[in-house]
Write a structure and sequence with these properties.
The complex is a heterodimer of chains A (about 475) and B (about 450). Chain A is an alpha+beta fold and about 475 residues long. Chain A contains eight helices and 28 strands. Chain B has nine helices and 28 strands. In chain B, strands 22, 23, 24, 25, 26, 27 and 28 form a seven-stranded antiparallel beta sheet that branches. Chain B is globular. Chain B starts with a helix and ends in a 5-residue tail after the last strand. The chains are: A alpha+beta (about 475), B alpha+beta (about 450). The interface between A and B is medium-sized, with 32 and 24 residues.
């Protein structure tokens, strides 16, 4: 009899607990209301053909307040440009900083905010509420790891059609990637969610981290690519909250850089080189004038340890771990152990700063002539196969049907001379632009390089 | 009243005669060229996605010599292994390729008369394309879309049409005859004929999204090409490495509206022009002491031909002006390199490679001509699995450099037979890549 009562009692307790958990959702949401905002901003439309730059579209993202003075964390999709050198230049992309940012609270109140910066590695960006007051913010708890199967709660937002209402759901961790920097995947996605950026909580309603869905590579994709959503634990972005990455044109915080392209040193390669036990990263390319070249690294070297920590890579994903180890280094000094032609060598490397990409390069324009130029950056130099120390400018924008367009100038052209003056820097061409604006000549001559040929272009003006 | 009747009758008779005259002319012209018209069906060996494949194409041609020489387009005859020709008498013959000239898009074939039991065949006469006039009537004969022995009629729409080189469609030496006679795929290589029954052009191109925009190579250009091919099997041209530009805008820029000459837009690295000191921006006033002038784009082909048609290694003098100073520079020309290099299929590894010509070196901005270019990779092949990608230059196998295609073929012949893994070292732009071709059983 006692046993039966005990069983009934336990069952009742359990049922109660389950019910309690259900009503917990409402409590969780209520406690978050003042800490989550809807970010409204304007994204400048990419157009290499228009100098005016007035086209823009209104966009929305979900954001969460993470500090008392109003620092808000959101997806890096707010500013799509790839700010650091990544070895693949896309000249056609133009991306402007988000403008006219406003944050909307649950009660309908709008406040202005400004863009602080972003971190491309985690895919997170930061904005700052402009009004100085005390904000309630999300307190994250530090969880080291999550087991596959753990239950989590996600707080996201619905799309405009549903007034961006908060949206909560329960999910379980379906997979765990990457041992060094764990990333957790949850297979069920809701395509109804807004930009798939949300907050991840444990069953007790405590914030564990953020939920992100990988965005499509293509700028004009109507909705994010369907794929498992990733949960990033607080430990991976805690440092960013205490010291947010600041975007300030030329002074943006940049990560450390080695200057190599690498490939996984697979078991088959190890067998080929007759060192079946060896594991590491195979250097395929050493970029000219990079820290790697200065340290004496060569194409074909196999990096087996970094600061004593052994490395291994069987596929391309494994290379990411190595890249992150380099990028996150706080000091520039590094020790690499490499294997070359049967010998093990220790190399001391002085890491440099990742070169800026063309998005951070300074630009100069001549509105009259109808074109803009940017200073050469490493990504463009590599794409055009120029010598690493080439100095000069390339055409980043040509106004459609403007004087330069009619003369045949195209985006991507390298300007060697303008009015017979050699152009080695942005300063040089700015001087010439000023002269042209003053003198108003009938013709302006350009000597350009387009792919492997050079030619002269003569812009007919019409002042 | 009687006079009015007589006059009207005479007028009607005259008018009738005129129209009949034009009809007769057309028929007479057709009679002269028709027997020389050839329907060509080459079976080509092309490389696609790393594999050698056979494809049959259709084109046209015209016999220009009694012993069976046929003129057609390069893009009809190139890469052909086997060429079947059908004469307008419906007799079928085999032909072999005598010579190709991709620079003008012309080719010469020779019909195998003996095997058909013939000693000679009817041939067409050439006219003078320099005296062709815009507006004159012309006939186009050929096999549009495979419909052999077809004739279409139109006029000359333009006698000096110029096209810039775009990718593989090049024509630096051609000033095209534009016609509204219907030119369709299949007409390529066929004759464009005037009302006297003389061939004045070879139909080669058409703008597909327009209407009645066909283009033929002037026969005078073909005359030189034929002469060269019959003598040397190819057209031997001089090359100095200069890219020319017309001076239409340049002379407005420097405010000398009556200026004559031709501008150097660029000089190829390590070319005869580069070594002699010719530079971009030099204005060339005379070549071999003969004044040259190119104000408009259409005047560039004659300048290029002036140099190209000189014997290889001839001394050429350039009188040029730069920044107010005039000077003369002399140089010796080189031989123009191949348009397209030889290709080779590696069946076992599943890729195709191409020899690196001077053109490829320039377009890909390579440092040297060593190695071979990967022109295709077969899906699912060992090369594909190893990560070999089209467009890369293969520099080393098993850490040993590859000098050229011949060197590669020798090594591949040996290496593809053994069951071992082989490490390829490739390069694209400034990036290197290791690719391991796995060994073992197939």
């Amino acid at each position: 009899m006692k046993r039966i009562l005990l069983t009934i009692f336990t069952l009742a307790l359990l049922l109660n607990a389950a019910e309690a958990r259900a009503s917990n959702w409402q409590a969780v949401l209520d406690s978050l209301r003042s800490k989550m905002v809807l970010i409204e901003y304007y994204e400048g439309i990419s157009s290499p053909e228009s100098m005016q730059g007035k086209e823009r579209i209104k966009k929305h993202l979900s954001g969460f307040i993470v500090s008392a003075d109003g620092l808000i964390i959101t997806s890096a999709a707010i500013f799509r440009a790839n700010l650091e050198f990544s070895g693949s230049a896309r000249f056609m992309m133009r991306s402007r900083k988000p403008s006219h940012i406003r944050i909307k609270f649950e009660d309908g109140e709008y406040l202005p905010a400004e863009f602080i910066g972003k971190d491309d590695d985690t895919g997170l960006a930061f904005i700052q509420a402009k009004e100085k007051k005390r904000y309630s913010f999300v307190h994250f708890i530090k969880v080291k790891d999550l087991a596959v199967g753990s239950r989590v709660l996600f707080v996201e937002r619905l799309t405009e059609r549903f007034d961006f209402q908060p949206f909560m759901r329960q999910a379980r961790i379906n997979a765990r990637l990457n041992k060094a920097q764990p990333v957790f995947l949850s297979g069920q996605n809701s395509s109804a969610a807004l930009s798939a950026f949300g907050l991840a909580l444990n069953e007790e309603g405590q914030a564990l981290g953020l939920l992100k869905q990988d965005l499509s590579e293509f700028e004009f994709a109507p909705s994010p690519q369907e794929g498992p959503a990733r949960l990033i634990l607080f430990a991976q972005f805690a440092k960013l909250i205490s010291r947010p990455p600041v975007f300030k044109e030329k002074q943006t915080t940049r990560k450390k850089w080695l200057g190599i392209y690498s490939q996984p040193f697979t078991r088959e390669l190890a067998a080929y080189f007759k060192v079946p036990e060896l594991k590491g990263i195979l250097i395929s390319t050493v970029i000219d004038d990079s820290p790697a070249q200065k340290a004496g690294l060569k194409s074909g070297d196999i990096i087996i340890s970094l600061d004593g920590k052994p490395l291994a890579a069987e596929n391309n994903n494994d290379l990411d771990t190595f890249r992150q180890l380099i990028r996150k280094k706080s000091e520039p000094g590094l020790k690499l152990r490499i294997y070359r032609a049967g010998k093990f060598l220790d190399k001391k490397v002085e890491l440099g700063e990742t070169p800026i990409s063309q998005f951070l390069a300074e630009e100069a324009s001549s509105n009259q002539l109808g074109f803009s130029v940017k200073e050469l950056t490493q990504d463009i130099i590599l794409a055009k196969q120029l010598n690493f120390d080439t100095q000069g400018v390339w055409v980043s924008q040509v106004e459609r049907a403007g004087w330069a367009d009619v003369a045949g100038l195209r985006v991507g052209d390298l300007i060697i001379k303008i009015n017979e003056k050699t152009v080695n820097s942005l300063q040089d061409i700015k001087k010439e632009f000023a002269k042209v604006d003053k003198q108003k000549p009938e013709y302006v001559s350009l000597f350009i390089r387009r792919q492997s040929d050079t030619k002269f272009l003569f812009i007919k003006t019409n002042y | 009243m009687k006079y009015i009747f007589v006059i009207t009758f005479l007028f009607a008779l005259l008018a009738n005669n005129l129209f009949a005259s034009l009809d007769n002319k057309i028929l007479a012209a057709k009679e002269k060229v028709f027997p020389a018209l050839v329907h060509i069906q080459p079976i080509k060996e092309v490389f696609a996605a790393g594999e050698k494949k056979k494809v049959q194409v259709t084109g046209s041609g015209v016999i220009f010599r009694a012993d069976g020489y046929v003129l057609t387009n390069n893009h009809v005859a190139e890469k052909a292994r086997f060429v079947r020709c059908t004469l307008s008498s419906r007799q079928e013959l085999e032909a072999e390729v005598v010579g190709l000239d991709p620079w003008t898009d012309l080719a010469v074939l020779k019909l195998n008369l003996e095997s058909a039991g013939l000693t000679e065949v009817p041939f067409a006469g050439f006219g003078n394309s320099d005296s062709v006039q815009v507006g004159q009537r012309v006939l186009a004969l050929g096999s549009p879309l495979g419909l052999s022995r077809s004739l279409s009629m139109g006029v000359i729409s333009s006698a000096d049409r110029y096209f810039d080189d775009v990718g593989e469609m090049i024509s630096p030496f051609n000033l095209w005859l534009q016609t509204d006679a219907a030119i369709n795929p299949g007409n390529s290589g066929g004759p464009l004929v005037d009302l006297e029954g003389r061939v004045i052009g070879i139909n080669s191109r058409a703008v597909v999204f327009g209407q009645n925009l066909g283009f033929a190579i002037p026969i005078n250009t073909a005359k030189y090409v034929i002469e060269q091919i019959l003598k040397h099997g190819e057209v031997q041209r001089s090359w100095i490495g200069v890219n020319w530009q017309e001076i239409k805008e340049y002379r407005k820029y420097i405010n000398q509206p009556a200026l004559e000459g031709v501008l150097i837009a660029g000089v190829d690295e390590n070319s005869p022009a580069d070594r002699a000191g010719l530079k971009a921006g030099d204005l060339v006033l005379a070549i071999n002491h003969r004044p040259v002038n190119a104000i408009f784009r259409e005047e560039l082909p004659p300048v290029r031909l002036l140099i190209a048609n000189l014997p290889i290694h001839s001394k050429i003098s350039f009188t040029l002006q730069n920044g107010g100073k005039t000077k003369t520079i002399e140089l010796f020309s080189d031989k123009q390199g191949k348009f397209s290099g030889n290709e080779f299929e590696c069946t076992k590894w599943g890729l195709s490679v191409k020899e690196i010509t001077a053109r490829i070196k320039k377009n890909f901005q390579l440092k040297s001509m060593s190695g071979v270019l990967v022109s295709g990779v077969r899906r699912g092949s060992p090369a594909a699995e190893a990560g070999v990608v089209r467009g890369y230059v293969l520099h080393k196998i098993d850490n040993q450099s590859i000098r050229n295609l011949k060197d590669f073929k020798e090594r591949y012949a040996r290496l593809s037979k053994d069951k071992q893994a082989h490490l390829l070292y490739l390069q694209f732009s400034k990036r290197n890549r290791f690719a391991l071709i796995k060994g073992g059983e197939e």
